[in-house]
């Protein structure tokens, strides 16, 4: 190895350490940049010649250091785990929020809740039983039935509005997903071109990873590696992004909750072909709310309204009103939306358990027996009140479980994110250590050049005499 080759080795050392310092500075500058992955210079020794020659041999010392490659520090396994956990967390969060809104629709516990309105109505029937000879108590029970019906209809309208809002949110989400997928496809194209040309693409990869994590939150996207640094994005087994081309998603199914059937429900499909996509994440949670949570409680509310109408009308038919006639229906409708009070005349309330008082001139009975039986229906273990209380308890339990699961998932996601950050994030202490190491290495390389220069000066200017 000649003296001048030593100068070349020292020169490569200077260049490599300077580049390492540049990369360290880049890491420190982006310590707070979202999605930035720390970078590291890949230092490789330049070995000696391994090819034999006729008139020369290599000492095998080497020719310095190469620093051509700058690696982006990422753990593919942790990134995949992050996509899965973020998708699960987003889905559970939406489901928990949907259940909380359902609870708000029923306003329980509270003075305006359906349970309170039921209690006031039964109390009204008890007042009629105590005062069957006055129209005031009968008018009051009609008003309380109207208030109860209004409360049931308000809860139904709140659930319907929640369904409509969730449906609109799903449409906006899918549009956002399509835009993000197109951007990922463009970044894939740029990364492939840069990789083929031997140019750095680390910053482009960081931007792409941020978008992919967003897609994981939205629809549960996962990735699979492609050629030349590209990534294919998969949602529910369907390729959303393949290389530099992106597919588009759409929302199919009814836009009215009353039109949902077992075979036609809101769903996410491919825009081309209409193939169903099993989405997770926020989209999966919204579909769960649209197809299961909200329709399920609307169905129970409809059953409650139908049972209430049947119960009151059946008992009303067993009594007699102040005209001496058998009771006519109090309520009409079989669903929460169609439920209404049809009796308006206080005298038409069938409070009596007998029709007339004999013997000679029959007169309407005012015993109030049927009203008393009506007021006791609140205690029926299979009645409307029992069914409603059971539904509210189940709703509370389901909401509590959903919130607990979401809290557990949030802890898991936080742990996974911490593990990802420990690999890809910038640690200022580590970067400062690296900076000092590269700085000392640069100084040593500089000192080596000075030593070689002094050696050459001695050999050239101080060895032997010339011109004698």
TrEMBL record:
InterPro entries given in the database record: Flag_bb_rod_N, Flg_bb/hook_C_dom, FlgK, FlgK_helical
Q: Where is the Flagellar basal body rod protein N-terminal domain?
A: 7-36
Query: Per its record, what are the GO molecular function terms?
Result: structural molecule activity
Domain of life where this protein originates: Bacteria
Question: Which biological processes are named by the entry's GO terms?
Answer: bacterial-type flagellum assembly
The Flagellar basal-body/hook protein C-terminal domain covers which part of the protein? Answer: 424-461
* Domain (Flagellar hook-associated protein FlgK helical) ranges: 99-330
- Classify the main location: other
Alphabetically ordered keywords of this record:
Bacterial flagellum, Cell projection, Cilium, Flagellum, Secreted
Q: Which Pfam families match?
A: Flg_bb_rod (PF00460), Flg_bbr_C (PF06429), FlgK_D1 (PF22638)
Kindly list the places in or outside the cell where this protein is found, as annotated in its UniProt entry. Bacterial flagellum; Secreted
SUPFAM superfamilies the record matches = Phase 1 flagellin
Sorted alphabetically, the Gene Ontology cellular component annotations on this record are: bacterial-type flagellum hook; extracellular region
Matching NCBIfam families: flgK_ends
In which family does this protein belong, per the annotation? Belongs to the flagella basal body rod proteins family.
Q: What is this protein called?
A: Flagellar hook-associated protein 1
């Amino acid at each position: 190895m000649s003296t001048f080759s030593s100068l070349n080795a020292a020169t490569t050392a200077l260049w490599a350490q300077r580049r390492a310092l540049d990369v360290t500075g880049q890491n420190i500058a982006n310590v707070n940049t979202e999605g930035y992955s720390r970078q590291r210079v890949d230092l490789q020794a330049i070995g000696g010649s391994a090819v034999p020659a006729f008139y020369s041999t290599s000492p095998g010392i080497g020719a310095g250091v190469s620093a051509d490659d700058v690696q982006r520090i990422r753990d593919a396994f942790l990134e995949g785990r992050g996509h899965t956990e973020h998708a699960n967390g987003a889905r559970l969060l939406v489901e928990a929020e949907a259940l909380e809104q359902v609870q708000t629709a029923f306003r329980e516990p509270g003075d305006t809740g359906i349970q309170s309105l039921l209690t006031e109505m039964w109390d009204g029937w008890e007042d009629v039983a105590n005062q069957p000879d006055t129209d005031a108590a009968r008018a009051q029970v009609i008003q309380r039935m109207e208030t109860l019906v209004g409360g049931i209809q308000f809860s139904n309208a709140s659930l319907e509005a929640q369904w409509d809002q969730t449906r609109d949110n799903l449409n906006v989400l899918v549009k956002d997903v399509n835009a993000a997928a197109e951007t990922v496809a463009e970044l894939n194209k740029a990364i492939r071109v840069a990789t083929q040309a031997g140019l750095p693409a680390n910053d482009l990869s960081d931007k792409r990873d941020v978008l992919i994590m967003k897609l994981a939150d939205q629809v549960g996207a996962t990735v699979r590696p492609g050629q030349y640094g590209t990534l294919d994005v998969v949602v529910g087994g369907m390729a959303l992004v393949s290389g530099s081309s992106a597919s588009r998603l759409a929302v199919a199914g009814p836009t009215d909750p009353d039109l949902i059937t077992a075979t036609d429900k809101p769903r996410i499909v491919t825009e081309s072909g209409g193939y169903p996509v099993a989405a997770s994440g926020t989209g999966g949670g919204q579909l769960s709310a649209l197809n299961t949570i909200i329709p399920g409680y609307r169905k129970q509310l409809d059953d409650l309204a139908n049972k209430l109408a049947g119960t009151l009308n059946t008992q009303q038919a067993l009594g007699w009103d102040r005209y001496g006639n058998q009771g006519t229906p109090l309520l009409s409708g079989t669903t929460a939306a169609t439920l209404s009070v049809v009796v308006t005349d206080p005298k038409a309330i069938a409070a009596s358990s007998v029709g007339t008082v004999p013997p000679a001139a029959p007169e309407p009975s005012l015993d109030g027996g049927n009203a008393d039986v009506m007021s006791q229906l609140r205690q029926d273990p299979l009645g409307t009140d029992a069914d409603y209380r059971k539904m509210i308890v189940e709703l509370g339990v389901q909401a509590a479980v959903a919130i607990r699961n979401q809290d557990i998932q949030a802890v898991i996601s936080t742990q996974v994110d911490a593990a990802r950050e420990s690999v890809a994030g910038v640690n200022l202490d580590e970067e400062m250590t690296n900076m000092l190491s590269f700085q000392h290495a640069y100084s040593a390389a500089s000192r080596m050049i000075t030593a070689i220069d002094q050696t050459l000066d001695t050999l050239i200017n101080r060895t032997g005499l010339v011109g004698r």
